Each structure stands twice: as C-alpha cells, then as structure tokens.
C-alpha cells in the first residue's frame, strides 16, 4: 500500500499527507486533555444557549399569539354585530323609542305617500306599493343612515379622546380615571360611550367585558384597535402611553386617507348625482309645461310599466356607481 501511494502521489506528497494526519491527531489529543470543559459540554452549551434564546423569544411569541387571539375574538364579535336586531341598531344610531314605534311612524308616512299618489291619478294597485316600501325598506335604511352619522361623529373625536388618555397615563392617572375625563370633556357621542364604560366598571364589570360591549355598540375598526391595545397591555405589559400614542397617530392617518379618497371621488359623485336627478327634473319641467304630454305615464298601464322599468334600471345604475365609489380602508 505504501509503495502504491508513493508511486501515485510521489514521495514528497506522501510525506506531506502523513504530516497533516499526524498534526491533526496530536492537536485532537491535546485539545481533549487541555480544554477547560470536556467535548460533551459543547453540546450542552449549545442546548443551554438554545433554551436561553427560546426563553427570550417566548415573550414575543406569546405576545403575537395574544394579538391573534384578540383579533379572532374581535372578528367573531364583528360577525355577530352584523346580524344584530333592529333594536340594537337603533341604539347604535342614537334613536330613542321602541322598534314598534319606529315602524308605526314609517307606516303612517307610507299611507300618506299612498294617498298622495292616488290623488295624482295613479291606480291604487301601484299606489299601494308605497306602503310596504316605506314600512319595510325605508325603516332599516333610515336606521343605517343614523348609524353612519353617529359613527362619523365618533371617528372625528375618537383620536382626541385617545390623546387625553395618553396625557393622563403619562401624568400617572389610572386608565379608568382617564376615561372619566374623556366622558366629561369630549363631545358626543364619544363622551356617552366612555361614560357607559366607566359606569360599568364602577359597578363591578371587568374592563374586558366593558370594552366588548363598547365594540357591540360601536363596531368600528378604530374601536377594535383600541380594545386590542388595552387588552394586550393588561395581559402582557408594556408602555401603554406609547402604544396609545401610536394608535392615535394611526387613526389620524386613516382619517386623512379617507378624506383624500373622498376628495378624489367627489367629481364622480357629483356627476352621478346630476345624471341621476336629470330624469326627475325633466319630468317636473314637462309636468309644468305640458301636463297632458306626461300624464300618459300616470294614466295608462303602459306608462306605469315604463315608470317601473325606468326606476329599476336607474336604481341598478346608482347602485353600481355607489359600489364603484365605495372604498374600504
């Protein structure tokens, strides 16, 4: 074997290879004998470092899991709030009274509309259609309109309320006391919502339950973020003032983006409003100038079908334009 290797790589190469192997063996023996820790301690040291790293990362992992759990809970609450009964929707819109009273008011309005249409010469079969339209369709639409108005007012004042809470926390006030200041100083509807929270916590309701009810009354993304910040801070700790300050900045940036989108889409909305109102304005002008010409739409059966078809297709067009201009942020 020695003669074969010598013939293959030559005598100098064989001597160099034997020197390298000898050096490696001697270095290994000296390392084992003179090292401060045995070789096995290297593996244990690796395991110890891994445990330390895992321990440092566990807090971050727990925080992410907690955020995911809170987001999952808020998503479930959002789905439930979307199927809320009309009484809950009336509460969100700031409407007083019962559901029956609201339906009664719109039924009376529908009866008045039916009488007005019959007085204009429309056949009773078509005029009576105004009654279910007002009672069944306009009632939830009116409640939704009031809810949107309340939510716009809330979003406009909510960042200011968070700023008050941030200043209170930085000066050493508890969160509940900061909420009481918001209930006294901030305009409606933010003040009433925080007043409900402070009154609920004052009678023994936990802050988590009070915030959950807060989201049920005002199902907005801004409220969702606020609840998550408070829930995470209470369970895992952290700088609450900094977190709420970042939240306030984020909400203001969202508002700026919404206003920018509103400004960019205002031209399209104005065009849609003008185009949608032209048929009605033209009908009024024709009724004043040549009533016998346009009265055929109200006195003849064919005219009734033409009115129904025109309103249907106009409704489809308005719905499509509204859908195209409705941006979700």
Termini separation (Å)?
Answer: 79 Å
Helix tally equals 15
Return the domain count.
3
Strand content: under 5%
List the helices and strands and how they pair.
Blueprint: H1 2-34, H2 40-82, H3 86-92, H4 99-119, H5 124-127, H6 130-170, H7 175-185, H8 190-202, H9 207-217, H10 221-236, H11 240-264, H12 266-289, H13 291-294, H14 296-299, H15 301-325
Helix pairs in contact: 2-10, 3-6, 4-6, 6-7, 6-11, 7-8, 8-9, 9-10, 10-11, 12-15
Characterization of the model:
There is one protein chain. Helices cover 86% and strands 0% of the residues. With 329 residues, the chain is mostly helical. It folds into 3 domains: 2-61; 62-264, no CATH class; 266-329. The radius of gyration is 37 Å and the shape is elongated. Mean pLDDT is 75; it is low at 25-54.
Short structural description:
By secondary structure, the chain is mainly alpha-helical. The chain is built from 15 helices and no strands. About 9% of the residues have low confidence.
Features:
329 residues; mainly alpha
